[in-house]
UniProtKB/TrEMBL annotation:
Species this protein is from: Enterococcus pallens ATCC BAA-351
E.C. no: 3.4.-.-
Record family assignment: Belongs to the peptidase C69 family.
GO terms for MF: cysteine-type exopeptidase activity; dipeptidase activity
Name of the protein in its database record: Dipeptidase
Catalytic activity: an L-aminoacyl-L-amino acid + H2O = 2 an L-alpha-amino acid
């Protein structure tokens, strides 16, 4: 029925766990195919539909007449619908949808999927333009799930400047959400992730009848407590090689003193980091492939070890977005939509300001035609070449990331100060300025990514197998 992306990895960071007091929700938007061009756009209120019809399920939903402006990351090819993936709205509320998760027949037998319901294709469009807080996002999506149901299992992240929330769908019409503690982080792969759960906490929201359903149908396998992953999720052999190792590696990076098994079905959901988390940390984990372990596909393990686990950074990464909501800057520049395209091992994220009405062409207008003037295709080309000899090209990548992120941080610092120093300028003037800054960021990004590809081609040409030791 539907094309599910099905391969993402999510990271959530509370404001006291980040280096500067920001909330962070981030995700690799992966798919079944290696290439699926993406775009970065702004949806202004006049472009938001008032009646929405899903391409996949055909459900039609009337939408409110007061949408907010929001950034969005739709597919470039709309055969299967918009699939907006993630964004930040004009009230500095962020949403990332979705992380495809797992389930089991016990819940599906009670609450089967709704074929004419809503799914990943639809969620950002239906929710993000109408919410003023992360909690409100959970409540709106919960109401939509109750009314229309869903045809697939998904995890969805919401954040504002104070809170981070994670919602997981349960069966066709049920759901549960939890507020991530301010001092905590989460690494969520493609499984049901929420574990220990307290229905009486102010930090949980859920379908009204969820506790009664668990008791009535005897769904809880544990002698003590409520663990939603045990009740509604899976614990399969696939989880041990496809999902659990990704959570294990992320937790190993953020909390290195904790000793865990990569195949463990009970790796914790809520974790505390050893030190405060940076944007660079989040990007590293979402680009990672089990570096410094025997499971690294580019490493020195046996062929069986290198192929055992599904890495986080993979050829099926279509974009990585890190949605940062800052707390120590004016609200006009609080929302930063960090973005990169393609397989994440050979790209770097760009800190685009969300408070704008348009986005740079090189990030906005990709389609199915190969074009190195569009960042999606440039990043995909660099990743393909880098994959042919990782050890030979890794230092080029490392230099590129350092230089690009340094340039981006410098541009951002200057722009932040400009906004702080010109408080009396109108909103329109500030937005116009931030659009110019985003253009500069995109220009620098394209220049540095093009140089990286050129350096790799020039160096790699001397190491091709098609060569001979004698010259003319």
């Amino acid at each position: 029925m539907q094309r599910r992306k099905g391969s993402c990895t999510t990271i959530l960071v509370g404001k006291d766990a980040s280096i500067d007091g920001s909330t962070i929700i981030a995700r690799n938007d992966d798919g079944h195919e290696a290439l699926d061009p993406q775009r970065f756009v702004v949806v202004t209120p006049d472009k938001q539909p008032r009646e929405y019809t899903s391409v996949i399920s055909k459900v039609t939903i009337d939408l409110p007449d007061n949408p907010l402006r929001y950034t969005s990351m739709p597919n470039a090819i709309l055969t299967d619908g918009i699939w907006p993936a993630a964004g930040i709205n004009s009230k500095n509320v962020a949403m990332s949808a979705t992380e495809t998760i797992t389930t089991n027949p016990r819940i599906l037998g009670i609450d089967p999927y709704e074929e004419k319901g809503i799914g990943e294709e639809d969620l950002v469009t239906l929710v993000l333009p109408y919410i003023h807080s992360a909690r409100e996002g959970v409540e709106r999506l919960g109401a939509l799930l109750k009314e229309y149901g869903t045809y697939e299992p998904n995890g969805i992240a919401f954040s504002d400047q104070n809170e981070v929330w994670w919602l997981e769908t349960i069966g066709g019409h049920h759901w549960a959400a939890i507020r991530i503690p301010d001092d905590a982080y989460v690494v969520a792969p493609n499984r049901m992730n929420i574990d220990d759960y307290n229905f009486n906490s102010k930090d949980t929201l859920y379908s009204d009848d969820l506790p009664d359903m668990i008791e009535e149908h005897q769904l809880n396998p544990d002698f003590m407590g409520v663990n939603l992953r045990h009740i509604f999720g899976s614990a399969t052999v696939k989880d041990t090689v496809y999902n659990n190792p990704r959570a294990w590696y992320g937790q190993k990076y953020f909390t290195p003193d904790v000793d865990q098994d990569p195949m463990d079905q009970d790796l914790p959901f809520i974790c505390r980091p050893k030190r405060k988390i940076t944007i660079e940390d989040v990007k590293f984990v979402l680009s990672s492939h089990f570096e410094n372990t025997v499971y690294d596909p580019y490493g020195n393990g046996t062929e069986e070890q290198k192929a055992l686990f599904r890495p986080i950074g993979i050829n099926r990464n279509h974009n990585v977005h890190i949605l940062e909501l800052r707390n120590h800057v004016p609200n006009e520049i609080a929302g930063i939509h960090w973005l990169a395209y393609g397989a994440n091992t050979f790209n770097t994220v760009v800190p685009f300001y969300a408070n704008v009405n348009d986005t740079p062409v090189s990030y906005r207008d990709a389609d199915g035609t190969f074009d190195l003037n569009k960042m999606y295709w440039l990043s995909s080309t660099t990743a393909l070449l880098g994959d042919t000899d990782y050890d030979m090209y890794a230092d080029f990548r490392n230099t590129f990331v350092l230089q690009a992120m340094t340039a981006f941080r410098g541009i951002q610092a200057k722009a932040d100060q400009e906004i702080k120093d010109n408080k009396d300028k109108s909103s329109a003037e500030k937005q116009a300025y931030l659009e110019q800054v985003n253009e500069e960021l995109a220009k620098v990004s394209m220049e540095k990514a093009t140089k990286l590809l050129g350096d790799m081609v020039i160096f790699g040409s001397n190491h091709m197998k098609l060569r001979y030791s004698l010259n003319d």
